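pinned: reference chain
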Amino acid sequence: MDVKRILNTLDEMFPEAHCELNHRNPYELCVAVVLSAQTTDVSVNKATPALFERYPTIDDLAAAEQSEVEKYIKKIGLYRSKAKNIIGLAQYAKEHYHSQIPSTMEELVQMPGVGRKSANVVLSVCLGVPAFAVDTHVERISKRLGFARKNDTVLEVEKKLMKKIPKNRWNDMHHKFIFFGRYFCTAKKPNCAECSMKDICKEKNKNL
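pinned: its C-alpha cells
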C-alpha cells in the first residue's frame, strides 16, 4: 500500500484537522471524551459549558450528586451511566493522583469510563504523547484504505496504524482520519465520486 500517498492526500484535504471536543485542560477533555461515547462531539460541546461552569475542577465534580450532574448532560445518550462515570473518574483522580488527570495509559484506563481510546485522546491532545486513538471513524477508514483487515479488532487496528504510519505523524493523522471519515468518507454515504483514493479503497466495488 502507498502510505505516503494516503498521508499526503489527507494532509491536502484536511490541513487544519483538530480535536473538535471543546476543552481548556486535561480534566475537561477527559470528561468530554467519556461523554462523547456513542454520541456526537457537537452534542457534547452543547452540554459541557454549563457542566464545567458548575463543576470547574476535579474536586468539584468529585463532590457532585449524580442526579444533579445528569441534569447537565440529559440530552446526551446514556446520560445516567456517563454521569456516574465522570463523577467516578473525578473521585479516582482526587484520591489517587492529587486531583490531576494522570499522564500514562496505564493510569488513565484505571479511571471509570476511560478506555484505551479515551486515554489515547487525552495523551495525544493534551500531553503531546504519540498515540493513535481508534474511534469508529478511524476504524472504518483504516479498513477501507487497507491499513487493517475487515475483521480486525480495534486494538489490532491501532497496532497496525502505529506500525505503518511514522510515529511523528500519529497525533495529527488521528485527527485527519477522523475528519476524512466524519466529513467525506462517511459510513452510509461515502463521497466516492470525488475521492482521489477510490482506486485503493476496499469498499469501492460496493460504492461506485
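why pinned: Residues 79-96 form the longest helix (18 residues). The chain has two domains: 3-17+132-207, 26-127.
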